[in-house]
DNA sequence: GCATCCATTGAACGAGCGTTCAATTCAAGA
DNA sequence: TCTTGAATTGAACGCTCGTTCAATGGATGC
């Protein structure tokens, strides 16, 4: 447990998580040692265990925190009744969110196999809830006759993969701005679901 | 170097590569030891060094071999002159190839960060050649007035991410057959590039 | 039957791993 | 000023890591 009284180390916990996030994203969970994380924070390795039970918990907390924050953020943004508008909101939200948090995104789909079985199950269930948010939009749009989709489940997987991929190539200094990128992906998405436009 | 004369171990080299491929795909490069690979083959760890210079070379050879085989296979298949037909061929080829070789595909985009810098550069250049094959099709289709694409480079990245994603969820025993999946992805692709159909 | 050869073994190397814990340190409360 | 208590250290634990190499052993060619 972390200390409860005020002190010079009040923010050590978050600093450990930040360092672990950055290092896991850069080198991979298995390739990063507790000593490297500690060095990044400026403490000895043993001190980490006052803030986390073990290395696995550090990874799981990061991934779980990311997915819960993603789901929470989406709930705050989703409000339109029109499926087409909902879909555009989803696409722009997803891209913005993923470009803002490249490290969290990266570890959350690269390090799934390093989760212990029960942690993996928990993470998959959170991911499934996010996929279902998109699936509901697509299903509703099809029912309203606005979308033409041969298989909504495959469309969900295809669209999420397409949109998530943006973080593998986008560079802030590149040819396109964030809003350019949002627009291009929205154009492709709109057409992929057969939305007239 | 491997032995040159005939012997009971003629096929040890390939067996090492197979074991390494399977283990790297399942647990990740950093999490797999040379001793585990050796055990899978049925030899001691030291014996591996008669067939590979070190662990890194084992990874790089697998990834390079995969990309070269992918490029070679595409060259064999690509022959149509019509951009729309070329695109359909590409989509179906990509999905089929990726479903046939899940392990190779998996390590080739999961283990990039575990490559030493010069190996990484070599791999990226092979990947770029594959992306360019698709980009040429899209550019040609736009020039011919068959496709409507606001940014072909983004379209390439988006489409490849979408198509590659199939290997993360497809199960042989699932609801859809391979050719069902090909068809659904081709439908989405066709519409995403604005191809009338 | 003997000499050759080379794939393979098995021990060893130094290093680093995750984790534990008694000892230390030092600010805060009395 | 002294006591308290928790944050942190630093050494130590038993292991596993990638890699090397002298010794081995079993088939091959003479």
Automatic annotation (TrEMBL), chains A, B:
Entry annotated with the keyword Transport: no
DNA-binding region range list: 33-52
Gene3D superfamilies: Tetracycline Repressor, domain 2
Domain HTH tetR-type: from-to ranges: 10-70
Keyword entries, A-Z: DNA-binding
Pfam family, any one: TetR_N
The UniProt record lists the keyword DNA-binding: yes
A molecular-function term among this protein's GO annotations: transcription cis-regulatory region binding
Top-rank taxon, per record: Bacteria
Name of the protein described by the UniProt record: Transcriptional regulator, TetR family
Originating organism: Aliiruegeria lutimaris
Taxon lineage: Bacteria, Pseudomonadati, Pseudomonadota, Alphaproteobacteria, Rhodobacterales
